[in-house]
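Quick review question:
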């Protein structure tokens, strides 16, 4: 209620002030029309007296000021025309000083002063000096600020600048600079004094009002920047020191922040670069509460853009040692402002790093130095918990990745992993994902064991549990995605030198083996395949004196895969053992291949109990064993016997049947030197047929109907395969008998109709018919089969 009442009162006071201005303006206009100087001065003074009010806020006072300003423009036009009022400018300048109140007197004096300067009847510098000194007579902050703003407004186009009509006859650029600096200094003092007025309960309101007036002060710096005569020397020797003196001495948080920001924005980047030491030297002297990080960040942003504008300016940065000065200044600011939040310090380092990457991208020592400074600031502190600080650290670590598309460049930064150590485990994982994504996006290749060591140290948050990790918080989908990323990065580690590649593999193995049972199933397979790729490159060499040989790598792989049995992940371990056995076969290493098969069989016997997993495993074993050709007769018989033995022990009859007929391929390898034991093939197929027949009978007993004839059709296809391959034990009569058996089963009363089986059998018969029509030797063989 009180606030609304105050606003209503203010509106009323403003309306009264505007009415007073309009009333006196009416009579002033009549006096101007009548060329009556005395009446014009009288009513203009009364009009300007409305600006003496102290009851309006800056915003409302500005409205009142603009009404008066418009009237002063008309009065100035009248003063310029001497023939209308019949008074010389010099006499007029004296005459207006007889006004009763100081505020109207000074507004009139400034107005006449503008005309006085334009008439050139007196040196410009004398008039400006007189005006700026006389304005000290008004010390009320708001009234004084608007008065001096008026002075700045009417004088800005009349300064004795280079090329200006007011230059010469003793009027120099220095006079213009002196005038603007003095006006700026006095305005800043008035602005700062506003903060000291009013009780604590209205402090926020006063702060807001001060903020509204800041542009009045900042305009002076803008005017300074527009003076053509201010060259680098003048700026360095006079302008900048005077401005900084005023900024530092005012000891006001709002003023210091705004003026530093204004200074950086209005003056040329080249000047900032050449006066960097002076400018930065003022930063530690500012109030501790000043948001200096934003000021410095903007300075570095401008300098970065300046460096990017032209390659020709880069030597200037080296000449003035810009990086060293900025780095030292940031260190001093952080040291001086001891209570600066950690997020503020890291933000400064992010800005410095961004500046360094833009201006000195080739200086990795600078980049590492910035990271080192950040590590020093973060040392002796617990893990970061402030989300804003964490976000800034991520920005700090991401900057080099974005700049250098080659991840290897970032891996050479010794302080990079030390910064990551200060992240909490969740953010550490996010950063590790960012690093891996950078590698994938840029198709980077990490090609040395040392670099791999650094890389895996960086992404350790994904490779092993860190302190503070909680299993309860782990989302399974997120975890799987993380581990798939790790698996992908293992595949891009490569070196043409086998010895170095083996070192890389050993380094990766060292790290991933610490990952625990949940991670190993994701990370061991890519490592195994990476090692197998290396083995295939070394396939034809096996000198024991070589540091990297297939034998040595196979030993490493045996130990690595063995770890999966403790996870446990027996199915995965079995698959990897079989992959290694196949690779050993290609390298002609019979003992190694035999050992891997042995390990696979042990896993099958001791660890794989699920019937579906057993079926998959036995088919994998049979398929791999069938492709191996390194074994002697004894070893192959042993392994084949084991495989057929496992097939016979499967629980479900259909699985048992399929495994047995699959074993037939172990006795018939369709290579030039392959095994071709037709009798044992026929034995397997006959046995499979008996098992299929038994399965049908069991189904008939259990369910009152026999199952589909799919197993018989599958066995028929095996008969046809071996018949076609030239196995003399497989006769057309046997095939004919099997076809008749299937037809009988399908027509049986107990048969279960099955469209899939029927279609399968029909396709098989069509194939026989196709072979018969083919002609030639194959056609003759199939001709005896009746379909």
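Suggested answer, residue by residue:
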């Amino acid at each position: 209620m009180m606030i609304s009442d105050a606003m209503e009162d203010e509106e009323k006071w403003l309306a009264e002030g505007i009415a007073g201005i309009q009333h006196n303006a009416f009579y002033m206009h009549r006096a101007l029309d009548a060329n009556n100087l005395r009446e014009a001065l009288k009513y203009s003074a009364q009009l300007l007296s409305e600006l003496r009010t102290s009851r309006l806020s800056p915003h409302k006072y500005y409205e009142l000021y603009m009404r008066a300003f418009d009237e002063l423009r008309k009065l100035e036009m009248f003063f310029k025309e001497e023939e209308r009022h019949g008074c010389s400018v010099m006499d007029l300048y004296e005459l207006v000083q007889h006004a009763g109140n100081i505020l109207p007197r000074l507004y009139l004096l400034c107005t006449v002063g503008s005309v006085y300067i334009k008439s050139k009847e007196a040196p410009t510098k004398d008039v400006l000096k007189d005006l700026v000194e006389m304005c000290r007579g008004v010390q009320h902050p708001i009234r004084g600020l608007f008065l001096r703003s008026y002075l700045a407004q009417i004088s800005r186009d009349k300064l004795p600048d280079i090329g200006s009509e007011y230059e010469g006859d003793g009027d120099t650029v220095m006079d213009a600079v002196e005038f603007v600096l003095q006006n700026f200094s006095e305005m800043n003092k008035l602005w700062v004094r506003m903060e000291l007025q009013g009780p604590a309960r209205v402090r926020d309101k006063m702060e807001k009002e001060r903020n509204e007036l800041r542009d009045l002060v900042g305009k002076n710096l803008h005017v300074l920047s527009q003076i053509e005569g201010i060259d680098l020397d003048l700026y360095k020797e006079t302008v900048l020191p005077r401005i900084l003196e005023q900024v530092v001495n005012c000891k006001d948080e709002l003023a210091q922040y705004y003026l530093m920001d204004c200074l950086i924005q209005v003056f040329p980047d080249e000047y900032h670069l050449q006066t960097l030491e002076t400018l930065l030297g003022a930063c530690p002297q500012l109030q501790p509460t000043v948001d200096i990080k934003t000021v410095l960040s903007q300075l570095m942003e401008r300098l970065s853009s300046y460096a990017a504008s032209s390659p020709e300016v880069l030597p200037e940065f080296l000449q003035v040692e810009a990086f060293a000065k900025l780095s030292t200044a940031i260190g001093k600011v952080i040291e001086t402002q001891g209570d600066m939040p950690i997020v503020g310090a890291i933000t400064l380092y992010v800005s410095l790093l961004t500046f360094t990457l833009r201006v000195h991208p080739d200086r990795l020592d600078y980049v590492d130095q910035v990271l080192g400074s950040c590590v020093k600031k973060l040392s002796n502190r617990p893990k970061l918990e402030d989300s804003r600080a964490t976000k800034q650290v991520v920005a700090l670590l991401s900057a080099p990745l974005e700049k250098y598309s080659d991840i290897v460049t970032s891996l050479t930064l010794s302080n990079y992993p030390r910064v990551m150590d200060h992240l909490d485990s969740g953010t550490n994982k996010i950063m590790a994902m960012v690093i891996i994504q950078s590698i994938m996006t840029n198709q980077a290749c990490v090609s040395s064991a040392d670099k791999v060591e650094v890389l895996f140290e960086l992404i350790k948050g994904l490779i092993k549990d860190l302190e503070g990790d909680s299993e309860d918080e782990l989302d399974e989908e997120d975890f799987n995605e993380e581990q798939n990323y790790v698996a992908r990065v293992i595949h891009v580690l490569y070196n043409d030198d086998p010895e170095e590649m083996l070192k890389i593999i050993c380094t990766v193995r060292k790290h991933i083996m610490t990952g625990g049972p949940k991670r190993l199933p994701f990370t061991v397979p890519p490592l195994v395949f990476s090692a197998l790729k290396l083995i295939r490159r070394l396939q034809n060499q096996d000198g024991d004196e070589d540091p990297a040989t297939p034998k040595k790598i196979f030993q490493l792989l045996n130990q690595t895969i063995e770890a999966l049995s403790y996870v446990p992940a027996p199915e995965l371990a079995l698959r990897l053992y079989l992959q290694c056995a196949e690779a050993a076969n290609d390298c002609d290493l019979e003992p190694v291949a035999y050992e891997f098969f042995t390990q696979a069989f042990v896993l099958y016997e001791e660890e794989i109990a699920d019937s579906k997993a057993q079926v998959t495993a036995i088919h994998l074993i049979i398929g791999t064993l069938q492709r191996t050709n390194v074994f002697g007769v004894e070893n192959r018989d042993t392994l084949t016997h084991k495989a057929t033995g496992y097939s016979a022990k499967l629980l479900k009859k259909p699985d048992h049947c399929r495994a047995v007929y699959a074993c037939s391929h172990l006795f018939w390898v369709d290579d030039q030197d392959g095994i071709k034991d037709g009798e044992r093939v026929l034995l397997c197929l006959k046995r499979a047929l008996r098992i299929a027949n038994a399965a049908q009978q069991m189904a008939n007993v259990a369910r009152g109907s026999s199952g589909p004839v799919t197993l018989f059709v599958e066995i028929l296809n095996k008969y046809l395969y071996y018949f076609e391959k030239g196995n003399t034990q497989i006769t057309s009569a046997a095939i004919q008998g099997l076809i008749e058996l299937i037809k009988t089963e399908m027509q049986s009363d107990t048969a279960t109709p099955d469209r899939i089986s029927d279609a399968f059998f029909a396709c098989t018969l069509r194939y026989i018919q196709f072979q018969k029509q083919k002609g030639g030797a194959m056609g003759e063989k199939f001709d005896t089969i009746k379909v």
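Why it works: The mean pLDDT is 88. The chain has 39 helices and no strands.
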